[in-house]
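User
New here, help please:
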Amino acid sequence: ALIFFDFLILLSGLLVLASPNYRALWQFRTMIICTMPDSWPALDYADYGCWCGMGGSGPAVDELDRCCQVHDQCYSDAMQHDECWPILNNPYTEMYSYQCDKPSKTVTCLSDNNPCEMFICECDRKAAMCFATAGYDEANAKLPSDYCE
């Protein structure tokens, strides 16, 4: 019975990782919209270059793709952060506090975040600011997967 209980705990943890809390991803989306009000993040960045969207491999094809590569690495670093628990506080599920200043198109991570939340918030904030300064090249959207090997 104890082994079965341990299995259920492990399984529930894996399900949390496999089915992200879309509210956390929604926060990243709204950060991008703060820095780029006319953007459509789900469409613009879901399949761009070799690093924007699910997964990532190969060299970054341009500055925007590099923003995604750095963001992916930041999320990997968050998973190893001493204050973050991979199942409970992973970047895809952890909610954090931030503020958008619409006139200046800037994002601030708020001081009421715990260390893990602050780390993840800063990952998203830096990526959103990076996206705002990087150019978008239509030629790098929807690249064939073998291009990024």
Remarks:
- Residues 48 and 141 are 4 Å apart (CA to CA).
- The two ends are 46 Å apart (CA to CA).
- Strands lie at 47-48, 52-53, 98-101, 106-109.
- Residues 4-21 have pLDDT under 50 and may be disordered.
